Automatic annotation (TrEMBL):
This is Formate dehydrogenase. It comes from Rothia aerolata. Belongs to the prokaryotic molybdopterin-containing oxidoreductase family. GO terms for molecular function: 4 iron, 4 sulfur cluster binding; formate dehydrogenase (NAD+) activity; molybdenum ion binding; molybdopterin cofactor binding. The keyword Ribonucleoprotein does not apply.
Length: 766
């Protein structure tokens, strides 16, 4: 395959058949995030699919919960008429697009041909309309339609044939509702395994581990109100303008209330620097406002060193909350001693941030009566992420910023219900109390041995110990690390089963037998014996609320709800009576959740209240369920990454035109990249130092103990990026991440600091 080397093609040339090479052009970068342009783009996306009425119901009481990110809804009094963002609109447009991947589509393209297609192309084929079977033993290289009954019976045979239930893996992506997720964990545990990995393992696992041990709860504590009224908002490793766009409205309110912001990021993301709030007067006029008051261009994985610099400075100034430390915490003295013993120059080298800038940050902290620390993947997806988060907690404890108005932890979650999935049992190591409750409620023996998380499941799949893989949404083959090993491992499974809305890359790597079971999506009407069904979700702030689909457009297709499919498999395989009750009325699933998980009292009743209800949150009340019943300070070590001559650290990020592996389009206007995705953002001085120029094509090669991995042909983009560090988009960069490279304790793939070098392969093009 020849890489393009000269001209600058137009969007239309990014055709269906473009698989490996695309043609990025560098153009104008937005100066501010969201605003009018955001709403304009949203409407443009939704209008052709007649999805505007759906949009107007989004995040309103009695409407649907946005299927995109997990950003909390404002309180009911503050709801805007349009409570959605550009990316929520894209998510809805994607679900409601009129295209369909009918049996004719699957007959036209063989599995071998599908392997060469990008997720952009696959997703744009539209909604899947029929259940499908691929059977390698038949010699036919296509997926063919199959009846639901036949599909369930094949799954039953496969599950019954396993020598050991731990040869099965049940993966969940965070869009699934509480009801579907609960049914799914019930199916796995009924079979006898806790192998329930989820996308949360790839995402905020480090957050869960660090917060559980320091604060006694693996979730954030700040409420929407805290975010709006805080004096100082510190954003670490996130790109909210793209990934949580509705947060811009919250930032606007925070700023109006006199709040300040510090943004810590190797890239000055547009959505951190300036914004236009479409629902304000200024925003309506297209006038942008400054967002970050202090931008801190940290090195990749330099945040732990940075927070240690800051914590030391605060201790040195005695700008700490002695009363809080005395009353609520444990371990302060050791931490103080450790921090003061660290070498200043070493910390500066680790973070890349000068003492002068740290001092400015400390000034802002000193002035602030309340501080929120918010973080996302720029923090969680590193080798020592857990320790970085613990150091950020040290900061909040030093300054008494937990459990008071305007303060707290704010890990912005990813998928719209990834947090809810965890709460209702999608976790390989659910606590004993839950497993016992489940056993008592349903009356079957529930396994106690911990299951496998995503990375360990993939290792079992890679190494030949697994036979059955089932996926509730998601696209694990594409979003996991070591794409190639993952593809081969999946093809060696006896059976793979995907509950999906649209074709995706994982379907192209089927097991011996593979089923694609097409599901109703959140916007679709879901009619059951007891009437139209609601589902429920939990957002990043721990609020549980209901969502009900209204669209009837897909009724003509042979789709079923996720709950229906999962419970039908349970019914057919195990013959228990309870499965059918769960299908007929999802209220019965909520009753079971209420009966097995604390905090869900009067579940069915409370979701009827506009805005839903809050789950209990200890840290918010300064109740810390840790080993000492106090909030824990922790000693964290900093090891500065030494890069061999010529090497970079590489991070993989999202463009403004995708939702994980769902690629809406090929433009990232916030970073000025159009019509293509194979770009690598590099500091211009770093390019010059390696004899490269903006526009050069390079292969990116990562180095790991077991050898090298290569991602071919990326266009260098000169960009204001922290030095010695570069970024590419996910999932294009996933081939570079070794599966064995995972975070300490949380086992999250190290997606954001991969050691790489460049090999120039082509001439400059514009
Ligand atoms: N539109 C849209 N919305 C989404 C998603 C989507 O794909 N599209 N995905 C959803 C999901 S599942 C999730 S988990 C979230 C993800 O939300 P984000 O975490 O915002 O996602 P990324 O694009 O990975 O961006 C990571 C950011 O961290 C920065 N970063 C990288 N490494 C470091 C570091 O070492 N230190 C610091 N301080 N910063 C660093 C990067 O420059 C980038 O700005 O968004 C959710 N929302
Ligand atoms: N390199 C790199 N890799 C990463 C990351 C990174 O930052 N860098 N981030 C990681 C993170 S944070 C996450 S969360 C994972 C995401 O991993 P996943 O959640 O596994 O992947 P998605 O791309 O979000 O899943 C998209 C697919 O879900 C299906 N789908 C969409 N809607 C529905 C629905 O309503 N029901 C069902 N059943 N299916 C549906 C569609 O078929 C679609 O193709 O990726 C991880 N991978
Ligand atoms: Mo995520």
């Amino acid at each position: 395959m020849n890489a393009p080397q000269t001209d600058a093609p137009t969007v239309s040339r990014i055709s269906a058949e473009a698989n490996v090479y695309d043609y990025p052009k560098i153009g104008k970068k937005s100066k501010a995030a969201a605003g009018k342009h955001g709403v304009y783009h949203a409407m443009k996306m939704a209008a052709p699919n007649k999805a505007v009425p759906t949009l107007l119901k989004m995040n309103q009481h009695g409407g649907i919960d946005c299927p995109s990110c997990a950003w909390p809804e404002p309180s009911q009094n503050d709801l805007n008429i349009v409570e959605f963002c550009e990316n929520g609109a894209k998510a809805v447009a994607e679900e409601t697009a009129p295209e369909t991947a009918t049996p004719e589509f699957w007959a036209k393209y063989s599995v071998t041909e599908l392997k060469d297609k990008t997720d952009f192309w696959l997703g744009h084929q539209g909604r899947i309309t029929e259940p499908l079977l691929y059977d390698r033993s038949s010699g036919d290289d296509h997926y063919r339609p199959i009846s639901w009954e036949k599909a369930f019976s094949l799954i039953k045979d496969q599950l019954k044939s396993l020598d050991d239930p731990n040869q099965a893996v049940f993966y969940t992506s965070g869009r699934a509702s509480n009801e579907a997720a609960y049914a799914f964990q019930l199916l796995a545990r009924r079979l006898g395994t806790n192998n329930l990995p989820d996308c949360g393992n790839l995402c905020h696992e480090s957050t869960g581990v660090a917060l559980s041990e320091t604060l006694g709860l693996g979730k954030g504590s700040a409420t929407m109100k805290d975010l709006e009224t805080t004096d100082l908002f510190i954003s670490v490793g996130q790109n909210p303008g793209t990934n949580h766009p509705r947060s811009l409205t919250t930032f606007h309110k925070m700023k109006e209330n006199g709040g300040k912001m510090i943004a810590i990021n190797p890239m000055p993301e547009v959505g951190l620097m300036a914004f236009e709030e479409p629902q304000s007067v200024k925003g309506g006029l297209g006038i942008s406002e400054k967002l970050a008051d202090e931008y801190v261009q940290v090195r990749l994985d330099g945040d732990r060193a940075l927070f240690q610099q800051l914590n030391r400075e605060l201790i040195r100034r005695d700008a700490i909350d002695h009363v809080f430390i005395e009353k609520f915490t444990s371990g302060f003295d050791e931490v103080k001693e450790h921090l003061m013993s660290l070498d200043e120059r070493e910390l500066e080298r680790g973070s890349g941030i000068s003492a002068a800038q740290v001092s400015r940050m400390a000034d802002m902290v000193e002035k602030a009566g309340s501080v929120v620390v918010a973080w996302t993947l720029g923090v969680t997806q590193h080798k020592d992420a857990v320790f970085t988060i613990r150091e950020m907690v040290n900061f909040l404890l030093l300054t008494g910023n937990i459990g008071k108005p305007g303060a707290g932890t704010a890990p912005f979650r990813g998928h719209s219900n990834v947090q809810g999935n965890r709460t209702v049992g999608i976790w390989e190591k659910m606590p004993e109390a839950f497993l016992k409750n489940l056993e008592d409620y349903f009356g079957f023996p529930v396994p106690r041995e911990h299951g496998l998380d995503s990375v360990d499941s993939l290792k079992q799949i890679r190494d030949g110990g697994n036979k059955f893989f089932m996926s509730l949404g998601g696209n694990l083959v594409r979003v996991a690390s070591d794409t190639t090993a993952c593809q081969e491992g999946m093809m060696a499974q006896e059976m793979t089963v995907h509950l999906s809305t649209k074709p995706n890359g994982s379907h192209a790597y089927p097991g011996e037998k593979s089923l694609i079971l097409p599901v109703l999506s959140r916007t679709d009407v879901d009619m059951k014996k007891s009437g139209p069904q609601k589902i429920t979700v939990e957002n990043s702030a721990g609020v549980v609320s209901a969502s009900i689909g209204k669209r009837k457009a897909n009724l003509g297709y042979n789709l079923r709800s996720e709950v229906d499919i999962i419970c039908s498999i349970g019914r057919e395989t195990f013959g228990d009576d309870f499965w059918q009750d769960l299908i007929d009325d999802y209220g019965n699933i909520r009753n079971a959740i209420e009966g097995t998980i604390p905090g869900f009292e009067r579940y069915n009743e409370r979701i009827e209240k506009p805005g839903g209800f809050y789950l209990p949150n200890g840290p918010r009340e300064r109740v810390f369920k840790t080993s000492t019943d106090r909030a824990q300070f922790s000693v964290n070590y900093t090891n500065v990454k030494e890069l061999p001559e010529g090497y970079f650290l590489l991070s993989t990020v999202r463009s403004h035109d995708q939702f994980n592996s769902t690629i809406y389009g090929l433009d990232d206007r916030y970073r000025g990249v159009y019509s293509g995705r194979r770009v690598v953002f590099v500091n211009p001085e770093d390019l010059a130092a390696r004899g490269l120029q903006d526009g050069d094509l390079v292969d990116i090669v990562s180095v790991w103990e077991d050898g090298e991995r290569r991602a071919p042909s990326f266009r260098c983009v000169a960009y204001d990026h922290a030095k010695d560090c570069v970024s590419v988009y996910m999932p294009e960069g996933n081939v570079l991440v070794p599966l064995d490279s995972a975070s300490e304790r949380s086992n999250t793939p190290v997606y954001k600091s991969v050691l790489v070098r460049f090999e120039p392969v082509g001439k400059r093009y514009m």
